[in-house]
Amino acid sequence: MSKGTLFDKVWNLHTVGTLTSGQTQLFIGLHLIHEVTSPQAFAMLRERELKVLFPERTVATVDHIVPTENQARPFADVLAEEMIVALEDNCKAHDIRFYNVGSGRQGIVHVIAPEQGLTQPGMTIACGDSHTSTHGAFGAIAFGIGTSQVRDILASQTLALSKLKVRKIEVNGTLNPGVYAKDVVLHLIRKLGVNGGVGYAYEYAGSTFEQMSMEERMTVCNMAIEGGARCGYINPDQVTFDYLKGREFAPKGEEWDKAVEWWTSIRSDADAEYDDVVVFDAADIQPTVTWGITPGQGIGINETIPKPEELSDSDRAIAQEAYRYMKLNPGDKIAGTKVDVCFVGSCTNGRISDLREAAKFAKGRQVASGIKAFIVPGSEDVKKQAEAEGLDKVFLEAGFEWRESGCSMCLAMNPDKLQGSQISASSSNRNFKGRQGSSEGRTLLMSPAMVVAAAINGVVSDVRDLL
Ligand SMILES: CC(C)[C@H](C(=O)O)[C@@H](O)C(=O)O
Ligand code: SF4
């Protein structure tokens, strides 16, 4: 095995050739598809009379458009029904494995692939979805792609890409109580900027990530894209192997031992060279909340909304836009901001450990009056597990709604939407203008525990006061 970073090793091993454009033609081991970005890709295949080259390397699910309350078919939304039918038809026509609603395996694409053991170290993974970087938590190189690239992969199992630089982001030390993986990634985006990662793959290294569970690592890698990086990853270790062992698509028997050996060999070498290295201290990270309209506009729960004069020229213009849109004032504390809706879910924080953590804070408490609070498991499997543990009851007794799995209000391509200028405390990953379904809707990103704290108090609160 050549020396270097995991990124370089995996890239080199999957290189088919160099295109005349100078880009690399990269073999893609696993292709994940969903209902939003696949229909036109299949239509383009049909036009050119092409087949799916390796149907066994593509796996489909439906997540963005599924209602989380009434999932009876046909869906009430005609467009949503058309989209699920198109996916059903395309998967059938091309012999593609499809985890449909009610199959027991449906869920947000970035939740189900790890759950089934499809996501493995050293793989190249692509999906027509920006948060594909999530899979990097396993030491895979995982790219979000556009619809024409979905077509390319269906037809050729390869992707044309320019090689990336690699930045090592080291975070060391133990996180303080009440500080989560979500806070780590919001902190990193705040410090490095939403465009800081452009042209880079992010390698997250250091003892803080080593101490994290796979689900926490997924939360971090999920938002690599929000920091501008094309992908993000963590070197595979015993935590990774323990998570994968026994999952449906994980290697078994002798194959398992061989796989672990190979997965270990693709880790970045101690003397690997990086294009950039930045180092952070876990002790400096506070429970973090975004106050603006980009995931980089985050502050510690005890901080005040930055004043224009405290910001760099480039941050000032977007801050001015954010004050107006968010109806929040520079210099004000973020703690105490009244919220209307509290949402725990999404591919960032809709996994079982997120729900367990949320339930810890919800137990024996009540959602404040006038607040709409709801919990959306990231997959049917997460829902089943949560119910087996009685988490649904904890949430229901506390006044939360308990839903079916899907993307829900993360993006609101389904009935879960903010109304008017409602403001949400949300465990999702994007706070763009209008993101949660209303053109004036406002989103405050935070950890699931902080969402529950906001639901209980009716205002943005420090979860550490509930510890
Ligand atoms: C609908 C889909 C293409 C989109 C994405 O690419 O990320 C969505 O998942 C999102 O989070 O904005
Ligand atoms: S949960 Fe949100 S971020 Fe994740 S895939 Fe769905 S819409 Fe995109």
From TrEMBL:
GO terms for molecular function: 3-isopropylmalate dehydratase activity; 4 iron, 4 sulfur cluster binding; metal ion binding. It is an enzyme of class 4 (lyase). Keywords: 4Fe-4S, Amino-acid biosynthesis, Branched-chain amino acid biosynthesis, Iron, Iron-sulfur, Leucine biosynthesis, Lyase, Metal-binding. Signal peptide: none annotated. InterPro entries: 3-IsopropMal_deHydase_lsu, Acnase/IPM_dHydase_lsu_aba_1/3, Acoase/IPM_deHydtase_lsu_aba, Aconitase_4Fe-4S_BS, Aconitase_4Fe-4S_dom, IPM_dehydratase_rel_enz, IPMI_cat. Catalyzes the isomerization between 2-isopropylmalate and 3-isopropylmalate, via the formation of 2-isopropylmaleate. This is 3-isopropylmalate dehydratase large subunit. It comes from Oscillatoria acuminata PCC 6304. The gene is leuC.
